[in-house]
From TrEMBL:
GO terms for molecular function: flavin adenine dinucleotide binding; N,N-dimethylaniline monooxygenase activity; NADP binding. This is Putative sterigmatocystin biosynthesis monooxygenase-like protein. Keywords: FAD, Flavoprotein, Monooxygenase, Oxidoreductase. It comes from the Eukaryota. InterPro entries: FAD-bind_Monooxygenase_sf (IPR051209), FAD/NAD-bd_sf (IPR036188), Flavin_mOase-like (IPR020946). The keyword Signal does not apply. Belongs to the FAD-binding monooxygenase family.
Amino acid sequence: MVYKGQRHYSEFQVPILERPVDDPGRKLRVVCVGSGIGGITTAIRFNQHLGEHITFQIYEKNHDVGGVWLENRYPGVACDVPAPCFAFLFEDNPDWSSYYAGGKEIFDYISKVADKYQTRKYVKFNHMVTGARWDEDKGTWGITIHDQVNNRTFHDEADIFILGWGQLNNWAFPDIPGLHSFKGEYMHSADFKEDFDPTGKTVAIVGGGSTGVQILPQIQPKAKKIQQYMRSQNWIAPVGFGAEELEKRGALEAGNFTYTEKEKQDWKGNPDAYHDYRRHIEDSMMAYMTEDGFKYGSADQQRMEREFKGHMVKALSSRPEILKTLLPDFPPGCRRLVPGPGYLEAVVKDNVEWIPQEIERVTEKGIVSKDGVLHECDAIIWATGFLADFRARFPMVGRDGVTWDEVMDPEPEAYLGCMMDKMPNCWLYLGPNGAPGAGNAYLAIELECALIIRTAKKMLREKIKSVCVK
């Protein structure tokens, strides 16, 4: 370079690129498994930040987006996190009908966001990923996909492989003799038959976690009899998380409240006010859980235990045998709380049989409990949860021939909750220690997605072939 008659130059040989310096010179192939909250977040954020530098594809085994909120349609399905907080960080929703939203309304919100950001165009529905193997030479994942509609199998390659398969869709059935020998109606809660009518029937509900606690109050008034199988103790909380707002509105006893049309219209006219409202609820909810609320022996923890115990003792006073087997001998917070508005009130009704025993076997006519008694029934609802052990949903082989399940055995581990040893260029949403024990899954996914995007940008900029933690 010549400046004011003098030649200026570097003593180093710097090659001149045949492209702009900010052009990475290649595109990354990004493949995501699942179009639930994680998949939709990925589609939106990756295309906002890296649109022209990537090709993007989501493979979804179901017929639509939504993940767990598409699949779970049982009576009473809802979220125990306040609806204003249970939303994408970039898409506030002032139209929530109530403080705690039902599953259908949550699905509709997710679907609306997918439409607004046109994410469905990136999704191949009814396509199930059946295997993946890391190719060290290419620095890519070889992925096998089954087209369930056309019954054909094909392959794809990914520079970046993102697993958004979720935690609450891999059904768990107990290992019980005769499980499928029952001649009546039976279903897992995640595959609930929407045309199922409990009217006049004896219905067995196996499981007393969040799902069973939501289902029982919905069908108890219609059923001839409910058989509730509950083998573990649970703190049944009167309300979900974020009770401060319920107390403020005088809705603690009701356990929920609806938003007025005026509130919704005011928030639509003043988005900043709604965002502040959302932040206030989330801050108060998280502060309670991260400060002293779950600290053993703290004043807040002891107060919470007194309140929960008092609630359960009062509600179950007419059925002391239920209280005896249900009331935990451990403090709240050791396990995820089970908010159960209406559950304790329903379980004491005359048509509910409390069976606090393990199941010995299932017969054509019903369930045999551990004491040898046959409990005949017309239908069985298996509210037995999901396999949330971080095992692979399909055969997956990483670096050095190590399988995914070998990485996760004996104790699942992940860097920042989403990156695993021996799994280069691969991220798992809500992995080990990556999912909130309570609170907003959207926030955790958004933070993990931001990490993946930062890594992808570095890979492009510096021509990095693979990234893996040790």
